[in-house]
Amino acid sequence: MKVSGKLMRKLLIFALIFLLVFVIVEVSLRKLFGFGEMSILFQQDAAFEYIAKPNQNKVRFGNKVVYNEYSMRSLPLTDKKECIILGFGDSVINGGTLVDQDSLATTITENQLQNRIGNGIRFLNISAPSWGPDNCAAYLNKYGSFNAKMLVLFVSSHDAHDNMTFEKVVGIHESYPEQAYPLAVLEVIGRYIKPRVMNVINKKKTDDLMINKEGIQFNSGFDFFKNFAEKNSIPLLVCLHAERVEVEAGKFNSEGEEILNYCAKNNIPVISGLQIGENIGDFVDHIHINEKGQARWAKAWYQQISESVKSCQ
């Protein structure tokens, strides 16, 4: 079938318009939101399931996101002698791509301590989405304490029984990409549109937090941190973040109470989100906190942390 010249011109114009629109959308997604090569990439780990790949410095949704050579959400360590506090936790303390590097509670506190004591103070953020205390303990066991002056374990109620299963998620679950998407459009489709369409088709909601481990035993990470701190004479502070439903109820659920009871029984200092006045304005969803929430925690733990680094002066 012979195609007329007029039809060919129309097809060519349509193709050029489509290409132009595609280029505009692709460039906009990359430059304005950081899709594509600015994805935060993950890697599997035999000790603690998964972690962000080391040495990432990206801008996502307008927020700076940095991971250093040890996959900490912190600036690189230096060769100089540093006075270190280690902060462990999950996506709440990590902040994800919705919180700028400078607005993290750990960064805020680090900067405050540096201004008061000196540039050698570091508050290192060791965290990953859906990590429980046992993930954090495995990291501490693998890399050691970096001669830390203090350990801070940041948890939520669900961490009481959120045990590791080593279910493979890196490169499989859309929230844990192993390599960057070649096109920003493909990331939007594969990571955001497709999962939501499948949820509608399957009439179910996927848990993007990956808190689905259904552990029975109390998380072994709590005992590891307690024993490690005692053996090495390092102060340990547990911070129990209140989820939105707990803030609304004004009390922790049974798992949160289990964590508080554990800390009381073992004489572990604990700061709770309800104690410091976490409120609805601190949340971006049912569990994660915004910059206001990060600043609240930075203020809450500052005094106890500053006491532990007095010897660095």
Descriptive report:
This protein has 9 helices and 9 strands. The protein has 313 residues and is α/β, with parallel strands linked by helices. The chain has a domain at 70-167 and 210-312: SGNH hydrolase (Rossmann fold), CATH 3.40.50.1110. A 5-stranded parallel β-sheet has the order 6-5-7-8-9, sandwiched between helices. A two-stranded antiparallel ribbon has the order 1-2. Helix 3 crosses helix 9 and helix 4 (133-143) runs parallel beside helix 6. It starts with a helix and ends in a 5-residue tail after the last helix.
List keywords for this structure.
alpha/beta, about 325 residues, 5-stranded parallel beta sheet, 9 helices, about 40% helix, Rossmann fold
Layout: helices, strands, pairs:
Elements: H1 5-33, E1 42-45, E2 49-52, E3 56-60, E4 63-67, E5 83-89, H2 91-94, H3 105-116, E6 121-127, H4 133-143, E7 150-156, H5 184-202, H6 220-232, E8 236-241, H7 244-249, H8 254-265, E9 270-272, H9 291-308
Parallel strand pairs: 5-6, 5-7, 7-8, 8-9
Antiparallel strand pairs: 1-2, 3-4
Instruction: Give the C-level CATH assignment of the domain at 70-167 and 210-312.
Output: Alpha Beta
Sheet with the most strands, sense and barrel status = 5 strands, parallel
Beta-strand share of residues: 15-25%
CATH architectural group of the domain at 70-167 and 210-312:
3-Layer(aba) Sandwich
Summarize the helix and strand pattern as letters: HEEEEEHHEHEHHEHHEH
Average pLDDT: 91
User: Largest sheet, order of strands side by side?
Assistant: 6-5-7-8-9
Determine the CATH topology of the domain at 70-167 and 210-312.
Rossmann fold
Provide the low-confidence segments as ranges: none
Number of strands: 9
Using the alpha-carbon principal axes, give the shape: elongated
Distance between the termini: 85 Å
**SS summary, helix count:** 9
Specify the CATH homologous superfamily of the domain at 70-167 and 210-312: SGNH hydrolase
Helix residue percentage: 25-40%
- Global structural class: alpha/beta
Rg over CA atoms, rounded to whole Å, is 22 Å
- Give the quaternary arrangement of the chains: single chain
